[in-house]
């Protein structure tokens, strides 16, 4: 069991947060707020998960304020040997963001050209309450939460990242879906002037990058829209200003720099499925028992690693979140629905 879902009344910050982290967190948090009503997640955390040396970003004032009010709600990975936080430099220096190139270092090199302020998000489709929202208005009604999650890429590398964001369920509830809404479809910005990968004639992606979730997956309390990580706003290469985080699915589901969220009746065709449907499916649940056609998914390379320290660990079913999510897939053949 890797995540304990506790009643808010069961959980105190002192139970889940070693002093070193608590103190470093106070660097950016004006004041801790108590746990509100609703779901609280807790788990063990390691004393070395202090990221007080991460450089301050350049967030707009409203985002700094939201971050300063963050609730400490979830610390999920719990293996004290393996689940230490990935250093910020690795999490922000080794990325997949094809809008800026296909090399792992391209996003950090080139995503600075992306203008993330102002930013707006369209919520549309099968909703009663849609519209175009300035990111600030979109985020403001929700409480920011910190979630430390594993991120397992389909390419068999992984990291552990402390995200800051809001439950996607908040946004969906506010949009008031109609009875026809069965899936959620997400789109990334298309702007070849700012995104050099979209100008490349070698690109295999038919822009925009698209992802999708079933409505129950989107409403799951582990599913968040992140606007920050490591106590600051998202670096552009990690999907600023708004990205999806679905920790039990392969990383390609975590779509970056979102501009549209649509509630739809039909299962969306996600970008990687469109490119190679025999290799990448709609579900993309982390599953060590179902290999990629070209490599095993039984193990993963936990970053940072090197030639001398391969840091290979076993991959866990649903990336270690089986207790929380397996019920959603009861009766579904996970081999054919990869
Ligand atoms: N979102 C967009 N728009 N474009 C992308 O190329 N890559 C995906 C996902 N989201 C991608 C994206 C893949 S394959 C992974 S593994 C994760 O982002 C990587 O997130 P990270 O760079 O923050 O580790």
Automatic annotation (TrEMBL):
Residues 115-272 form the Oxidoreductase molybdopterin-binding domain. This is Protein-methionine-sulfoxide reductase catalytic subunit MsrP. Its cofactor is Mo-molybdopterin. Predicted to be exported by the Tat system. The position of the signal peptide cleavage has not been experimentally proven. Pfam families: Oxidored_molyb. Belongs to the MsrP family. It comes from Vreelandella nigrificans. Its EC number is 1.8.5.-. Part of the MsrPQ system that repairs oxidized periplasmic proteins containing methionine sulfoxide residues (Met-O), using respiratory chain electrons. Thus protects these proteins from oxidative-stress damage caused by reactive species of oxygen and chlorine generated by the host defense mechanisms. MsrPQ is essential for the maintenance of envelope integrity under bleach stress, rescuing a wide series of structurally unrelated periplasmic proteins from methionine oxidation. SUPFAM superfamilies: Oxidoreductase molybdopterin-binding domain. InterPro entries: MsrP, OxRdtase_Mopterin-bd_dom, OxRdtase_Mopterin-bd_sf, TAT_signal.
């Amino acid at each position: 069991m890797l995540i304990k879902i506790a009643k808010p009344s069961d959980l105190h910050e002192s139970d889940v947060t070693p002093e070193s982290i608590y103190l470093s967190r106070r660097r950016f948090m004006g004041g801790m707020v108590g746990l509100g009503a609703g779901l609280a997640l807790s788990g063990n955390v390691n004393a070395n998960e202090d990221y007080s040396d991460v450089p301050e970003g350049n967030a707009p004032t409203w985002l700094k304020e939201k971050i300063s009010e963050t609730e400490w709600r979830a610390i999920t990975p719990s293996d004290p040997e393996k689940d230490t936080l990935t250093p910020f430099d690795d999490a922000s220096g080794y990325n997949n963001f094809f809008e800026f190139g296909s090399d792992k270092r391209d996003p950090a090199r080139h995503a600075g050209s992306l203008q993330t302020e102002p930013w707006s998000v369209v919520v549309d489709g099968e909703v009663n309450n849609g519209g175009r929202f300035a990111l600030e208005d979109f985020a403001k009604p929700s409480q920011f939460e910190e979630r430390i999650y594993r991120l397992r890429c389909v390419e068999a590398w992984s990291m552990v990242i402390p995200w800051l964001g809001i439950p996607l369920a908040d946004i969906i509830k506010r949009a008031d879906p109609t009875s026809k809404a069965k899936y959620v479809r997400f789109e990334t910005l298309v702007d070849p002037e700012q995104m050099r990968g979209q100008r490349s004639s070698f690109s295999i992606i038919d822009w925009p990058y698209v992802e999708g979730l079933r409505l129950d997956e989107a409403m799951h309390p582990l599913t968040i829209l992140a606007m920050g990580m490591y106590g600051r706003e998202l670096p552009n290469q990690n999907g600023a200003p708004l990205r999806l985080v679905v920790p039990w699915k392969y990383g390609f589901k975590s779509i970056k720099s979102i501009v549209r969220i649509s509630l739809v009746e039909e299962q969306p065709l996600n970008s990687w499925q469109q490119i190679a449907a025999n290799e990448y499916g709609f579900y993309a649940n982390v599953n060590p028992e179902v290999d990629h056609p070209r490599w095993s998914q039984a193990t993963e390379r936990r970053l940072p690693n090197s030639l001398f320290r391969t840091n290979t660990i076993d991959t866990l079913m649903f990336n270690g979140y089986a207790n929380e999510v397996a019920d959603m897939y009861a009766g579904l053949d996970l081999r054919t629905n990869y």
